[in-house]
Amino acid sequence: MDRLTVQSPAKLNLVLDVLRKRPDGFHELRTIFERISLCDQITLTRNKTRKISIRCAHPHVPLSSKNLAVKAAMLLSKDFSITEGLDINIIKNIPVAAGLGGGSSNAAAVLMGLNRLWQIGLSNAHLVRYAERLGSDVAFFLYDTSYALGEGRGEIIKPLGVTTKLWHLLVTPRVKMYTPEVFARLKLSLTNKKDNVNILLPFLRKGDIMRLAGALSNDLEPAILSLRPDFIYLKKKLIDAGAAGVCFSGSGPSVMALATSQKHALSLRAKFDRRYSQVFVVSTL
């Protein structure tokens, strides 16, 4: 096999609780990840140059070792003495620096893809250890699960056996928000001390959309709004348009509106796709 094409899905955070600052400078989190149908496509092709190269038409995707997908390939290449080169081609559909985990998902897709292409034979547990070296959200994408509980920095993953399928309208303003900058604005004294994960989980398991909508939460919202106070109007517009519930995903700026059905999500999109250029109807994958 000289070439392999893999899908690289985005994620949403239905709950994001920030518990405390850790000694390593990161924050202790509890979050519920949802894998969604918005996906990048990645093609991995062997080459004889002994170099790892990356191509992507999106202007904000780094085409260097700063890209997590390249870092993932370099780690495996070095540790397993791979002498051949690799071309990584990314068709980017997931907005960049948008709280949707696109870069992390790309890295996980490359880890899994190269494990097959280069016939390394690593177990998922071993791949998870590589994911932890690459970034906090990478490990989630290695699990074949629609939903998972994330703890630690987000890298400790417990798949949830939940079969509920959700529909969302996803609106991403064309503003990049970088996670360190958002966390730097976080005031832990103002975060919600309720156990939002266990409040939301029963509603998710039962598929109780309206009560689930009321339980969506993100402790990073005040920090996001301190950087972009105008985003509060986007949330208000989505609520006024009839969304069941509205919440930022991750460190923003993407705002997810929970819909009661695909038809509801499509009706919401009709009210927003003229005002915003990055508007997506997505469902649980």
Descriptive overview:
The protein is built from nine helices and eleven strands. By secondary structure, it is of the alpha+beta class. Strands 1, 2, 3, 4, 5, 6 and 8 form a seven-stranded mixed beta sheet that branches. A four-stranded antiparallel beta sheet has the order 9-10-7-11, sandwiched between helices. The chain is 31% helix and 29% strand. Helix 1 (68-79) runs parallel beside helix 2 and helix 2 crosses helix 3. The chain is globular.
How would you summarize what this structure contains?
Helix content is 31%, strand content 29%.
**Helix proportion:** 25-40%
Cα-atom radius of gyration: 19 Å
Count of helical stretches: 9
- DSSP strand tally: 11
- Alpha-carbon distance between the termini? 27 Å
Globally, the shape reads globular
The proportion of strand residues reads 25-35%
Stretches with pLDDT under 50, minimum 5 residues: none
Task: Summarize the main sheet.
Answer: 7 strands, mixed
User: Could you tell me the mean pLDDT?
Assistant: 94
The assigned structural class equals: alpha+beta
SSE ordering: EEEHEHHEEEHHHEHHEEHE
Break the fold down into its secondary structure elements and pairings.
Elements: E1 3-21, E2 27-47, E3 52-56, H1 68-79, E4 85-91, H2 102-117, H3 124-134, E5 147-152, E6 156-160, E7 167-171, H4 179-184, H5 196-206, H6 209-215, E8 217-218, H7 221-227, H8 231-240, E9 245-248, E10 255-259, H9 262-270, E11 279-283
Parallel strand pairs: 1-8, 3-4
Antiparallel strand pairs: 1-2, 2-4, 2-5, 5-6, 7-10, 7-11, 9-10
Helix pairs in contact: 1-2, 2-3, 5-6
